[in-house]
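Tokens as discussed.
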């Protein structure tokens, strides 16, 4: 299987399967001299970790990350590690696999899953939790994203769940602090309370729902990206689209821009006190012509309903027999919840990558 690597200069290769011994990644191209701690990487991973509420899969994985190479410990004996510029290898052991939960579907194609397409392409598939196609792989993206956040000076990346099923937040009540106080990364406390009862009903009915996640990156300098084949929004969209179950991505106003006039959509400018342009709106989501404007980067992505559900769905098996499939095991009734830290990581990696490309091309960072 090819194509396990993303990025141009900040390159991340992930490996491992959902029910294998471990998952891991190798980061190539990280500059030397970047300081971080394993604890801060673990903090990002803990936000994605399963089994933290009744609204996510109950698989019990500590997701304890180990850094195996590419760093030096400081002489003072503290926790700080410094990158050396050589490949950084990280690993997370799998400790709570239940492969027997999937034995009944080893020859069945689950509707909405990649079972059929994987077998059509490779002639073989790992039926144990989806193998390589499982969202378990994304834990390593979050680990890599934790390091990527350190590369762009002054950059902060944060995300929130803005829609679950057909229920959206009230943007007038948006509070970033609130997103850390509930099980949904929801910035609207009123919506979070409503979603809890809604998702309980969905889960009890043996079904699932999709979601929309919004990512904001602030402190991004103007000038990152390129006008044609290395557009910043192109690579952000590619990274977000590579996340399991994602079916749509938009930057700034996205599809809503199609309903606006040119007068409404234009991000007007005035001269700021520091001489730099001051934008009066951010309909473009911080990117114009594939290049960052210095405004916050805003991206949203849509996640489909979890395909693994208890309600029987019609399908076929590997022998062409018509069957009904009901997926047992431990699954998220809404995979969009844990997609928030994954989306943050992919945006952070794309921005770190473009920051390094910009620095290499212009000599400015």
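Sequence:
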């Amino acid at each position: 299987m090819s194509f396990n690597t993303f990025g141009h200069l900040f390159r991340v290769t992930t490996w491992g399967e959902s029910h294998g011994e471990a998952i891991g990644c190798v980061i190539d191209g990280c500059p030397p001299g970047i300081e971080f701690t394993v604890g801060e990487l673990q903090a990002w991973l803990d936000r994605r970790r399963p089994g933290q509420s009744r609204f996510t899969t109950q698989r019990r994985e500590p997701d304890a990350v180990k850094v195996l190479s590419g760093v030096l410990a400081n002489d003072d004996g503290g926790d700080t590690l410094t990158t050396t510029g050589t490949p950084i290898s990280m690993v997370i052991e799998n400790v709570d696999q239940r492969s027997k939960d999937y034995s009944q579907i080893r020859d069945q194609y689950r509707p909405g899953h990649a079972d059929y397409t994987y077998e059509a392409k490779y002639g073989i598939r790992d039926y144990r939790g989806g193998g390589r196609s499982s969202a378990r792989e994304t834990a390593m993206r979050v680990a890599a994203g934790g390091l990527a956040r350190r590369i762009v000076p002054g950059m902060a990346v944060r995300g929130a769940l803005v829609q679950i099923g057909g229920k959206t937040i009230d943007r007038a009540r948006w509070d970033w602090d609130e997103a850390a106080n509930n099980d949904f990364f929801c910035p609207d406390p009123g919506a979070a309370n409503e979603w809890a009862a809604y998702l309980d009903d969905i889960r009890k009915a043996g079904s699932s729902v999709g979601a929309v996640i919004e990512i904001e990156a602030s402190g991004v300098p103007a000038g990152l990206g390129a006008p044609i084949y290395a557009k910043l929004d192109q690579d952000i969209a590619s990274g977000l689209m590579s996340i399991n179950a994602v079916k749509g991505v938009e930057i700034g106003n996205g599809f809503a821009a199609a309903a606006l006039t040119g007068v409404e959509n234009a991000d007007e400018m005035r001269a700021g006190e520091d001489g730099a342009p001051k934008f009066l709106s951010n309909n473009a989501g911080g990117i114009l012509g594939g290049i960052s404007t210095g405004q916050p980067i805003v991206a949203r992505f849509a996640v489909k309903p979890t395909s693994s559900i208890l309600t029987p769905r019609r399908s076929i098996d590997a022998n062409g027999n018509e069957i009904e499939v009901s997926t047992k095991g431990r699954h998220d009734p809404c995979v969009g919840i844990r997609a928030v830290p994954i989306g943050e990581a992919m945006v952070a990696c794309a921005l770190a990558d473009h920051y390094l490309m910009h620095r290499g091309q212009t000599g400015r960072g």
